[in-house]
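Task 17 of the worksheet. Students: predict the tertiary structure of the chain below and write it out as structure tokens. Keep your answer in the requested format; marks are given for formatting as well as content.
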Amino acid sequence: MKKSKLIDLFDMHMGKTPARNNPLYWENGTHPWISIADMSANGKNVAKTKECITDLAICETGIKPIFPGTVIMSFKLSVGKVARVQTGAELSYCNEAIMAFEIKDTEPSEYSISDEYAYYLLSSLNFDSVGNKAVMGKTLNKAILENTEVSVHKWEKQKQIVAELDKINDLISLREQQLSKLDELVKARFVELFGTENEFGKWPCCTIGDVADVCVGVVIKPTQYYTDNGIPAFRSLNIGEMRVKDSDWVYFTEEGHEKNQKSVIRKNDVLVVRSGAPGTACVATEKYDGYNAVDIIIAHPDNSKVNSIFLAAFTNMPHGMNQIRAKTGGAAQQHFNVGGYKAMNLIMPPIELQNQFAAFVEQTDKSKLAIQQSLEKLETLKKSLMQKYFG
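Model answer:
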């Protein structure tokens, strides 16, 4: 292996955002314009973008083009996301939170690198270990990137590494697609049983507050109760759509937990995100009975009237989300409050039908669990190989 700085391997440049208030830069644009959201949604390769810009935007802003196959990295907000540009267009463009890494056109050697290898090389970088305040502030500056040192394998070894990691990536992508299909199946079953968001008239309706006691997790200075090892507490980042994200917990002291009994989670509670991605909801299973909560909505449903799984699904579906967006629209920081959730209109099919749907969800979750376990093993294997090859 050979030690090199990124500046020795790549010409690096960031993008721009053409003025949003100029419709001539955006309307009927034909040139792909990449944002961090496009990187997140497309896995290894950015195959399409949500937005395109016009010839005029390119001409008047001086935004630099990105050639097919170029590796890009986010260096603001979501630091360290990596992807290859494969939009199908001759040239693409990106915003100012993304850096493009164009491989330098040097004399070929046994240490020349391909764009496929560059993708994994840059993906292996761990900026948490770089001692600088910029990373802690969720911004990684160009100078730090340029002077980051990496180990480069010889050309033949690069091809072996890429082939091995590509196989694992393909399997990971397959498992993720399987999970996504099962999620779609649950949503389709909900609509089959209860109708679309425009068919509220099929059922009696009430408000969520009529069938559930609703409160909020600790909002005022929750950090005063934090400790290294105590009672786990839910935050927004622990709530996924119909699932608990069982990592990155904070912990309350025993004293803090006792002071905040109103925010203690019980089995079958529906937990709803307030800020960031408002309305995302899941159900607390027995495992999480007795946890505490920080700044999330907690609904204690009357399960003789409403099934918890049905209520969480309703919240995540357009049936609930459309109401939530109407109450949070326009704010720079999307925020949803307890009163808004209590006042939401809720369809009330017979409890037997709700339970039937919940049983379907639970059966689907068993299939998802097996796939999720396989996915976790693959991700562990990939992490191990990345460590082996890139250190």
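Marker's comment: The chain is about 40% helix and 20% strand. The two ends are 12 Å apart (CA to CA).
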